[in-house]
Amino acid sequence: MFYYVLKYVLLGPLLRLLFRPRIEGLEHIPASGAAIVAGNHLSFSDHFLMPAVLKRRITFLAKAEYFTGPGIKGRLTAAFFHSVGQIPVDRSGKEAGQAAIREGLGVLAKDELLGIYPEGTRSHDGRLYKGKVGVAVMALRAQVPVVPCAMIGTFEAQPPGKVVPRLHPVVIRFGEPLDFSRYAGMENEKAVLRAITDEIMYAILKLSGQEYVDRYAAVVKAEEEAAAKERTAGRRRPRLPLG
Length: 243
Known about the structure:
Low-confidence stretches: none
Number of strands: 9
Shape: globular
InterPro entries: Plipid/glycerol_acylTrfase
Number of helices: 8
Radius of gyration: 19 Å
Distance between the termini: 76 Å
Pfam family, one: Acyltransferase
Protein name: Lysophospholipid acyltransferase family protein
Mean pLDDT: 86
Keywords: Acyltransferase, Transferase
Largest sheet: 7 strands, mixed
Strand content: 5-15%
Helix content: 40-55%
Structural class: alpha/beta
GO molecular function: acyltransferase activity
């Protein structure tokens, strides 16, 4: 119930007023039945802008950190995500991927829309990164179409680390549903899962126009952070006197 109060009374109208998002391809979202909406992930705002423009309810797999933050802010954030039906997923440990797949399949089994970001995390630099194969596993097991989606302008509106978004033109673009029924029964084939995931990411790429990086975002971000720490440590290291 609170989901629809936010969507139609509180948050939805405010987001439309502030960002005035241009919506393209909304007709590609199935009017009924289960489907996966797979999008790029550029900003925290993505969680709110896409649901605000869809006619149907959509459930996202959200990282568990949104539900476990400390203090009043943490409790408010957890309450908000719970109230709008988002599902916490622990991304640590070997079972993290399987847990996400189980939760996602549960949503699809109820003939609902499932929102997922195949990159697995927000892009830290605005580029599109290699997708993880969980989206392919769910598409095959649930036998549902995948609708690619591109969020454009949300990185500029609210880049990582910025709490209050700035006003910036936003485009939300949906592509034609992708049908993978030709791969039915092959969800355990690694090559098939990679091919499906790459096809989904290419569809998102065509919609978004981003620069593509054929590596996982989390790996690249960790490498860049480690390099930055090394440079900082080097600048702080005292120089030995000469002679």
